[in-house]
Design brief:
By secondary structure, the protein is of the alpha+beta class. It contains 1 helix and 5 strands; from the N terminus they run αβββββ. It has one domain. Strands 1, 2, 3, 4 and 5 form a 5-stranded mixed β-sheet that branches. Strand 4 and strand 5 form a beta hairpin. The chain is rod-shaped, with a radius of gyration of 31 Å.
Length: 160
């Protein structure tokens, strides 16, 4: 009789151990899945925020270049291209600049939207040049199995 009780206790201990191992492995798999999704979400959020900051800084860089650029003789700044990030230039930035305003003020820049006001002393909108600055930031999603590009676009209208 003593031998049968010992056998039952050993069998029960093995079943309990297998059950505990199964529960622990299921719990570990669940935690790993949630952790993986959190890392992917954080990476995606970081990349989008980085693209947003790059777009903002290249908008300001375009304004800085335009303010100090000699527009006489048709020498106008229309694009700024750059890349950012190591390795392999993770972000590609393309900035397009369009000029809006009075033809007399634009000098020889190729205007995109103009009005030929014959005003000898321009005031208000007639006396200013406006800019449309489009910044496109392209980057690849690290977790995308198809390896597609994502484009972040920022458009700014600015008076010069």
């Amino acid at each position: 009789m003593i031998d049968k009780n010992i056998r039952h206790k050993k069998a029960f201990s093995i079943v309990t151990a297998i059950f505990v191992i199964f529960i622990m492995s299921s719990l570990t798999a669940l935690i790993m899945g949630v952790s993986s999704k959190t890392v992917k979400s954080t990476t995606k959020q970081y990349q989008k925020e980085q693209a947003s900051l790059l777009a903002r800084s290249y908008t300001e860089l375009a304004m800085l270049y335009i303010i100090n650029y000699d527009r006489s003789g048709g020498n106008c700044l229309e694009t700024i291209n750059a890349s950012f990030g190591e390795p392999n230039n993770l972000y590609t930035i393309k900035t397009n600049i369009k000029y809006i305003g009075n033809k007399q003020l634009l000098l020889d820049c190729p205007p995109n939207i103009t009005q030929d006001w014959n005003v000898s002393n321009p005031t208000g909108f007639d006396s200013s040049i406006s800019l449309i600055i489009d910044v496109f930031v392209n980057y690849k999603d690290f977790d995308d199995p198809i390896d597609r590009n994502i484009t972040f676009h920022r458009r700014t209208i600015q008076k010069l």
